[in-house]
Each structure stands twice: as structure tokens, then as C-alpha cells.
Design a protein that fits this description.
By secondary structure, this protein is of the alpha/beta class. 35% of the residues lie in helices and 25% in strands. It has helices spanning 2-10, 26-30, 49-59, 68-72, 89-98, 113-126, 140-150, 177-183, 186-189, 193-210, 319-336, 344-363; strands at 15-20, 39-45, 63-65, 79-82, 102-106, 130-133, 157-166, 213-220, 223-224, 236-237, 241-247, 253-260, 273-281, 284-288, 301-305, 308-312, 367-368. The strands form three sheets. The protein has a nine-stranded mixed sheet. α6 runs antiparallel to α12 (344-363) and α10 packs across α12.
């Protein structure tokens, strides 16, 4: 039925999307297009010929390129998803915009604010949709929690607490060694696999749920790892991490605790990570429970209000759901001519928060986000 539907869909005008980079996380990005009613994956690109051919055959993609500029030269492509190592984002985004393509780029959008500003300015000049993909923001339980808060389910929000627990890499999906190599290099991946990479998800949710952040304070350790899924064995990881922040609105605060334990079993068909959040308001509490690892036996969302607990167990909560909705959002943004909620400006502010946390950890002091400039 899906094959028949796909053929029928292609009978009408659909957006043609290209992937630049088809490594491990591209599996999730593909979820956004394999049954998308407005767009389909038309072309892919990767410098690794083996993985390129594997993906092309598996996804039955029409065109495959080893050089991303060849993909950008394809006039049939409407938009691209850039899913490459962090240090390549800046140049690739500029080239994609200059080629007339709409652009969605993986987080973090760039390595610094200067690069982010150049990308935003170029997108405005070219008049194209430009967004920074953040799958947590499209995760249905977070969307539901945001809606409940806006409708006063817990009263005025006061604080948010987020926790990440990473376990032994053997209990999650396999990460290619090439990905581990670049992620272990600060010149390519930024300062910290936890703070700068995974932290982008956390900072995005912190802003999404509670608003603009004013200042941060961070304690970040260093730990040598042997089986972390994204780093080569023996690498130093910025963990454990304890980060707190103050919102611009008075009397609102947030915190994030990140823990890695090589002895912890985190069963998962994706990354071996448990992530959960707690939002406390003046009259209630929301718990957004784990959605990457498995077997915690908790409902996707819980609400305590008016002295009663309510469980939301019927919400789609698989990790892939956020990516599927992200692909749908990108296509809809292109069709409508309206920028996605996750604009380049929003991506830049998430990046600014990340850099402020790194600065605080290095200098061991409270850091205002206003300090993080070009």
C-alpha cells in the first residue's frame, strides 16, 4: 500500500529533497520523507561511496552524489537537509543558499556566532527558508506539554529540571568509527560532545518550554570513556555536568544534569540514553518521560494538578516521531513560504546558550548570554 501511495503522490507536484550526509542519524531524517505527502527524498550525497550506495539502494533514491556541490547543481532539488559534521555546516549552508535551495541544517548550526550570523544574513538575502533542525522540539510529548502549559494546566511556570543518563554503548545502535573520530576532534565537533552537541537539545527545550535565558552557571567534569557511543575509546568527555540557568522573566530557573555510566544498561534501538524533564508551575507539575531508551515503563507524559495525577499514555513517543514531524514541517514551510518556528535566529540563540555554558565551565563563574558575541 505504501508503494502504491508513493507512486500516486508522485503523480502530482512534490518537493524534491536532497540529503547532504547520510550517516547514522540520517536514518531518522529519512523518517520525515518516506511517507511525506508533500515531499520525497530525491537525491543523497556522501563522501563515503559504500554508505552512499547502501543508502541509495535501501531508500531507492533516484540520484546519488559523492560531491555535495554536484548535488547543489541539480536544478530539480527544492530543498536540502545538511546532516554533516558540525565544522562543515557553515560553508555548506552558504553554498546551498547560493544555489537557490531551501535549507535545513542539523544542530548545532555552526561553531560560533559569527558563522551563524553569516548564515542568517545569506538566507535573508536569498529569500529562502532556513531552519536548524531540532528533533526534540517536534517530539509529541514536549509539544503536548507546551500546549498544557499555555492553557494554564500547571499555572505560572517556575522551574524546569532536565536529566540525561547515558549508558553502555553496547546496548544501543552501532555508530560508525568515522563518526566517532570527528566527534572526538574539538576543531570539527566543537568544545564538548555533551555540552556542545547533546546540549543543543537541552538548551532548545529550555527555551521552548520557558523562554529566553539570561545567564548560566556550569560545573563540568572530565571523564575518560571506553564505550561511549559517539567517541573513540580513551577519549575525554565533558561529563558529569551540572548546569543551571536563570530566565529573563523574574523568578524562573532551570537545571540540567548529565551523567554517563559505562556500567549502566540502557536498552535502546537508538542511542543508549534516557532523557526526562520536570516542569513545575504555581499549581501543578508536568513530567515528560523517557523517549530514547526503552523499558522504563512510564507514560510519555504525566500531569499533577488539583491534587490528582493524570497520565497521557496515548501520545506517540518513539524517538523517530520528532524527525518525522520535522520533515513535514520543513516541507510545509517551503510550500507556505513561511519560515519554520525553528528559524536560523532561534538556532543562533540556542548556540549562544551552549557557548555561554562552555564559557562558564571554563571560567567557573556565572556568565550572561549577552557576553557571547561575534
Amino acid at each position: 500500500y505504501k508503494s502504491y501511495l508513493r507512486i500516486k503522490i508522485k503523480d502530482r507536484k512534490m518537493l524534491r529533497i536532497g540529503f547532504i550526509g547520510v550517516g547514522r542519524i540520517a536514518d531518522m531524517h529519512y523518517e520525515g520523507y518516506k511517507n511525506n505527502l508533500n515531499a520525497y527524498l530525491y537525491a543523497i550525497c556522501d563522501s563515503d561511496a559504500n554508505i552512499l550506495n547502501e543508502r541509495a539502494n535501501k531508500w531507492k533514491v533516484e540520484h546519488a552524489y559523492e560531491n555535495y556541490r554536484d548535488l547543489l547543481d541539480d536544478k530539480n532539488i527544492d530543498g536540502v537537509e545538511i546532516i554533516t559534521p558540525h565544522h562543515l555546516h557553515h560553508r555548506m549552508v552558504l553554498d546551498a543558499l547560493d544555489s537557490g535551495k531551501h535549507v535545513s541544517v542539523q544542530k548545532p548550526m555552526s561553531l560560533n556566532i559569527r558563522q551563524a550570523n553569516e548564515m542568517i544574513t545569506r538566507a535573508e538575502k536569498c529569500g529562502k527558508v532556513f531552519r536548524v533542525i531540532e528533533n526534540y522540539r517536534y517530539h509529541p510529548p514536549f509539544s503536548k506539554a507546551k500546549s498544557l502549559i499555555e492553557h494554564g494546566a500547571i499555572g505560572e511556570p517556575i522551574s524546569i529540571r532536565i536529566k540525561s543518563l547515558t549508558g553502555n554503548a553496547e546496548h544501543g545502535w552501532t555508530i560508525p568509527s568515522g563518526a566517532q573520530n570527528w566527534r572526538s576532534d574539538p576543531d570539527q565537533a566543537g568544545d564538548g560532545s555533551i555540552i556542545f552537541d547533546h546540549g543543543q537539545h537541552i538548551w532548545s527545550i529550555a527555551r521552548y518550554i520557558m523562554g529566553d535565558v539570561d545567564s548560566v552557571f556550569a560545573f563540568v567534569g572530565n571523564e575518560r570513556v571506553e564505550s561511549f557511543h559517539e567517541l573513540t575509546p580513551g577519549s575525554l568527555m565533558d561529563n558529569p555536568a551540572m548546569v543551571s540557568w536563570k530566565y529573563k522573566d523574574a523568578n524562573r530557573y532551570g537545571s540540567w544534569e548529565s551523567i554517563y555510566s559505562d556500567k549502566m544498561i540502557v536498552s535502546s534501538k537508538y542511542y543508549p540514553i534516557y532523557v526526562w524533564a520536570e516542569v513545575t508551575g504555581a499549581s501543578g507539575i508536568l513530567w515528560i518521560n523517557n523517549f530514547i531508551g526503552q523499558d522504563l515503563n512510564r507514560p510519555a507524559l504525566e500531569l499533577y494538578a488539583n491534587g490528582e495525577m493524570t497520565e497521557f499514555s496515548d501520545i506517540e513517543s518513539d524517538y523517530s516521531a520528532g524527525f518525522r514531524r520535522a520533515g513535514e514541517d520543513f516541507a510545509q514551510s517551503i510550500i507556505s513560504g513561511k519560515q519554520s518556528e525553528l528559524t536560523g535566529m532561534e538556532g543562533r540563540e540556542v548556540l549562544r546558550l551552549s557557548l555561554a555554558v562552555i564559557k562558564s565551565a571554563h571560567e567557573r563563574r556565572e556568565v550572561s548570554l549577552d557576553e557571547v558575541t561575534d
